[in-house]
Design goal:
By secondary structure, the chain is of the alpha/beta class. It is built from eight helices and nine strands. The longest helix is centred in the C-terminal third of the chain and has 18 residues.
Amino acid sequence: ILDHFDGVLLFQPHEAVNSKEYKGSRIYIENLLRHLPESLVEKMRSVRSRTRQRHVLHPYKKVCDITLKRNFKYKDKDTYNMAFLGWDNTARYREKATVYHGCSPENFKTFFEGLIKEEEKKHPENKQLVYINAWNEWAEGTYLEPDTDYGFAYLEAVKEVLTKAKK
C-alpha cells in the first residue's frame, strides 16, 4: 500500500523500538509472526496483553539515538522522521502502560536538532519536513504544549533549533 504514496512518515517512537537496532534478534521472530494469519496474531497479542503484569519501559535517549543512526529507506520513496517527547500512557493502561522515560527539554532539543540536520542533508529545501508527535496527546503522556513542570521549554527548544537551522 505504501507504493501509492510519495513519501513515508517514520512514526516515532514506534518505528525505532520495532527496529533490529533496538530489538536485536527478537526482530526475526516478530518478522516470522507477520507471515501468520492476522486473526492468529491478534489472538496472540490479546493473550500477551492480558498476561502482561508491568509497564514496558524504554529509555528516551536510547530510542532517540537509534532514530538518528538509522538510515531507513523505503524503495524510492522519500522518508520523513518524527520527533517525540516523553511518553507515558499509564493514565490509559495503568500497570500495562508503555513509558519512554528520561525526556527533558535538553534531550528533546538535542534529538530535534539531530533530525533537522539529517533532514537538511537528505532533502532539498522545499521538501524538508520533520514532524513532532504530539501537541497535546495527554492520554499518551506526550505533548509539546506548555505545562506546569517545564513551562514553554519544549516550545523554546523548537524555536531555537529552527532559528539556528535558518542561518
